[in-house]
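Suppose you are handed a protein chain with no further information: no name, no annotation, nothing but its sequence. What can you learn? This example shows the usual starting point.
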Amino acid sequence: MAFDSKNIKRDLGKKPAPQYFNPIADDYEVSQGHNGAIFVDTIPANTIPTGQKTNIGTSAVPLGSGQLCRELLIQSDPDNENNILVGNATAQYICLVPGAFFSTKVSNINLIYVRSVAGTGKVNWIAEEVV
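A reasonable first move is to predict its three-dimensional structure. Written in structure tokens, the prediction is:
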């Protein structure tokens, strides 16, 4: 969706609050500040964790171990021969064809489980780290 398809955020008095449009969240987010100044919380490029999980079989396995994050993008590797299923420890219902991706808000990548529908596969991921 686009910024012009969403309502802006309003304060208790129904006046527009300071905000910006976040295309990842597909919504407006209120700008936070201190002492009357708006600030932006940036993440240095060297703290953006990425990874790859290889040799994924037909049994669900955690995507990683102990990486704290805010948001996670998972891609079924374009060279996979089979689809990858994504979910939690008990169920994996999100089906990714080779090259497709899925984004979700999650606090730790070890909460996401992946498995191949047949054979083996791999996934690539990038996370927004908690700083």
